[in-house]
Amino acid sequence: MRILLWHVHAAWMTSFVQGSHEYLVPVLPDRGPDGRGRAQTYPWPDSVREVTPEELRGTEYDVVVLQRPHEPELVRRWSGRTLGAYGVPAVYVEHNTPRGDVEGWRHPLAARDDIPIVHVTEFNRMVWDNGRAPALMIEHGVLDGGYRYTGRRDALALAVNEPVRRWRVAGIDLAATIARQIPVSVYGMGAGEVRTHVPTGLAETADLSQTELHQRVADHLAYLHPYRWTSLGLSLVEAMTLGCPVLVNAATAAPESVPAEAGVVSSSPAVLAQTALRWRADRDEAREIGLAARRHALRRFGLSRFLDDWDHALKEVCR
């Protein structure tokens, strides 16, 4: 199967393109949001091929995996094709939780019944108003990079892009509260700006590959996931896969995705901080919880299950 999709979320795409298909990824000269092309710091296979808008007009593909509301118009403008019942089969991956007032949580594709919406958590499927659109759910799947946890650093790791702009959504203020008792290392684009807002924590930023980031995270005592309003973060799933114990804010899909043996899920920053201090004093407990987190992540978020689920969904939409 030949699949057209945009490079929007690199971590999710890295798992998705591990399948047995050919993947067409649009590229523009500036490699901006509508034409990032292949990832530069993630391990993508040779089956992912860049295509320009001009090349796309003369290229055949079997299905389009949409991820943003304006992409159907990009398909029409760049290739001259329509999507859905009278055009190329398509599905829409909804990575995000809705924003704004609850009465405004109607999905952009809610009026269509010919393009299924695939949510990444049951929480998202529940809170979005999907309207007439078929609403599916395919949970995340991640590559297994192996057990890497060392816990040698007396700090918590947090991976988030643009933390200052996404301050309350990402729960950076909660991380700042926790950082008063135990340092928090923040990784991702713009993480260096956090230094001016979290003076007692460790704010770090670097241009890291996925492999380098995973090792840096695994060297920390635990992984912190303080998000208030988000889909289940892939960085959280990856941290569990690495064997890290996790400390998680009890919001959105987190409580049903992280069992008690894999870490602590609580809406109290004080509970999360106290747990971190306990793990710092008892490294054996931290390591055992991290091993349980890894077992859970491999069982629930394994790559083969993820790819099988997607193969089934794509075959259905292409029938």
Provide the fold topology:
Blueprint: E1 2-5, H1 10-16, E2 22-26, E3 48-51, H2 53-57, E4 63-66, H3 71-79, E5 90-94, E6 117-119, H4 122-127, E7 135-137, E8 153-159, H5 172-179, E9 184-187, E10 202-203, H6 210-218, E11 220-225, H7 234-242, E12 246-249, H8 254-257, E13 263-266, H9 269-281, H10 283-300, H11 303-317
Parallel strand pairs: 1-2, 1-4, 2-3, 4-5, 5-6, 6-7, 8-9, 8-11, 9-10, 11-12, 12-13
Helix pairs in contact: 5-9, 7-10
CATH topology value of the largest domain: Rossmann fold
Instruction: Assign a percent range to the helix content.
Output: 25-40%
The 3D shape can be described as globular
Strand content: 15-25%
Write down how many β-strands occur, each being a DSSP E stretch of 2 or more residues: 13
Report the average pLDDT across residues: 93
Largest sheet: 7 strands, parallel
Describe the overall structure.
The protein is of the alpha/beta class. It folds into two domains: 2-141 and 303-317, Rossmann fold (3-Layer(aba) Sandwich), CATH 3.40.50.2000; 153-300, Glycogen Phosphorylase B (Rossmann fold). The chain is 32% helix and 17% strand. The chain is built from eleven helices and 13 strands. It has helices spanning 10-16, 53-57, 71-79, 122-127, 172-179, 210-218, 234-242, 254-257, 269-281, 283-300, 303-317, and strands spanning 2-5, 22-26, 48-51, 63-66, 90-94, 117-119, 135-137, 153-159, 184-187, 202-203, 220-225, 246-249, 263-266. The strands form two sheets. It has a seven-stranded parallel beta sheet with strand order 3-2-1-4-5-6-7. It has a six-stranded parallel beta sheet with strand order 10-9-8-11-12-13, sandwiched between helices. Strand 4, helix 3 (71-79) and strand 5 (90-94) form a beta-alpha-beta unit. Helix 7 (234-242) crosses helix 10. The chain starts with a strand and ends with a helix.
